[in-house]
Amino acid sequence: MERTEIRESILDILQDINEDVDYESENKLMADEVLDSFDLITLASEIGEEFDMEISPQDIVKENFNSVDSITDMVMKSKN
Amino acid sequence: MFVSYQFIIFLIILLILYYTIPKKVQWILLLAANFIFYAYADIRYPVFIIVTAAAIYFAAVTMEYCVNKKIGNVKKRKKIIMLTALFIVLGILVCVKYTNFIIRNFNFLLNETGHGKISFVNFIIPLGISFYTFQGISYLLDVYWGKCKAQRNFFKFLLFISFFPQLIQGPISRYNDISKSLYEKHVFNIRQISYGVERILWGYFKKVVIADRIGTAVVALSESPDYYTGVYVMLGMVFYAIQLYADFTGGIDITIGIAQTLGVHLKENFIRPYFSKNTAEYWRRWHISMGTWFRDYVFYPCGTSRAVRKIKSFFKKRFGANAARRVTVYIATITVWLATGIWHGAEWHFVAWGLGNGIILLISEECAPLYRKFHKRFPKLAGNALYNVFQILRTCFLMSCLRLFDTYGSVRVAIKQFIHMFTQFGSSTLSGKELIELGLSFGDYIVILSGVIIMLAVSILGRTGSVREKISKKPYIIRYLVFVGLFFMVLLFGAYGQGYDVSQFIYNQF
After folding, report:
1. Does A56 touch chain B (CB under 8 A)?
2. End position of a domain, from candidates B124, B153, B185
3. Which residue of B134, B230, B293, B452 pairs with B425 in a disulfide if CB–CB is 3.0 to 4.6 A?
């Protein structure tokens, strides 16, 4: 899967969780609690299922979940 | 224990020694102080904390050793070591805190089927066992996950687990947050000491002037639920909300203040919780260290576990993707709130309280898209002061309703009183005479009201930055008056004497 494809899929998941957020410009999704713990656990679970990867509790940190790009990086890293 | 002459003398002696001995041994003195404090409460308590600390210490060091030396299947070994330590420390907690609860429920079943009963066990429950066990578990899991390095010095680790200011009622600190300030050398800093002492005084004010005084009326209202119905249930809810806030935040103020005098920085545990506009926000602002603990060490692990993933895929096949997505949140939320309830105490009313919180949060989550649509339709409402007040009052009311379980200490009575609040409203009147019968004089009510106004003013001031910093910028005379005023208010208006137990905090029991 290409990076752009992964990014698009993540954006779709995020839109399903809350369509009112501008994910392209937002880069503090976790730090500013744009995504709360319910959103984060849903997101982690959906990403795990979509990309067939295991997201552990220690992965749910700002560095991985603050923006679409950081989430994409996390998925790419697990794929490699 | 914090509100006694003995403790004040203990703290003064500790501070004098702390800042006069060589700085490299300050942490050793602090460790000794922890054990004097703990053993003073009960000579047997230290044994429990040492066993818990040893189990976690050895597990952490061994896990790190396995990683460094790459021994066998590191992941598997680490997991076994972590689970063994978890089993030991949770086993101790369950044994001393929950055995009699289990026996009581077992006896209930035996009684129903006519099979005799089991005798209760006389365990001592070490002071603050829930707090230090949770603090230890957070360290254990952080080392397991590679979030922090294992502490090689057992005594330094013991200091982290047993740091006396937070032993009684938290906050539940993380190793990475406080270890540096616990072990580093501290020079005498008058500003830091005076900040700490003022914070302690502010805590004493909330505790002995407000919480202990209003506690008399809360006891009177909760002890006679058949007599105090209707409007009195609501009055009890308001009184208990004040008492709990003043008692718990007061206790945490004292804790943070003591730590500050010792140069140790503890994180804030409350951010004006009664100004929250919804329940999720309330739980992000009330007892923050507990909320984040359950989020990081129960909610996320549960939601990302293999078992939940399997249940989710089962639901997806049977009920579709939409239902499956909810499953993760539902299971994790109910698990975390059941655990939060039972952590507060070995009683069914705590379980009901926890479950109630979980259900309200899930209902709010389900309604979130509706709220968003509503706010899109009425965009000006979000900035409307009246609507904000409505949201704040609604959240306070919901939280107070759930606290009825705690106030009455019984699921049945709490539900009955909740219904009575609406159905027997007309049969009870609120008069001056009946208010006095709650055990408080007119003067007490004036003191409480004044105290609540001061707390409210400080909370409102705190919205735009630290109140302490604001006071420090005022002229010397104002700072002096605040300091002396607080001291004399605690001395003159504190609820002391017969019928008051200043040594106890509500959160001690948890």
Report:
1. yes
2. B185
3. B230
The whole-chain average pLDDT of chain B stands at 89
Q: Closest-CA residue in chain B for A58?
A: B145
Reported as a pLDDT band with limits 50, 70 and 90, residue B324 is confident
Across the interface, of B301, B312, B313, the residue whose CB is closest to A57 is B301
CATH topology for A3-79 is 1.10.1200
DSSP of B60-123: HHHHHHHHHHT-SSHHHHHHHHHHHHHHHHHHHHHHHHHHHHHHHHHHHHHHHTT---PPP---
- Number of domains forming the structure of chain B: 3
At B70-111, the pLDDT tens digits run: 877 888 999 999 999 999 999 999 999 888 888 888 888 877
Tokens of residue B416, six digits: 């009955």
d(CA B452, CA B197): 21
Do B155 and B80 share a structural domain? yes
Regarding whether B312 and B210 lie in a shared domain, the answer is: no
Residue B400 lies in a domain: no
Q: Among residues B162, B185, B208, which one ends one of the domains? A: B185
% of residues, chain A, pLDDT over 90: 45
Q: pLDDT per residue over B350-381, tens digit each?
A: 999 999 999 999 999 889 888 888 888 888 88
Phi, psi dihedral angles at B262 (to 5 degrees):
-95, 5
Residue B429 forms contact with A (CB below 8 Å): no
- B45-55 residue pLDDT tens: 899 999 999 99
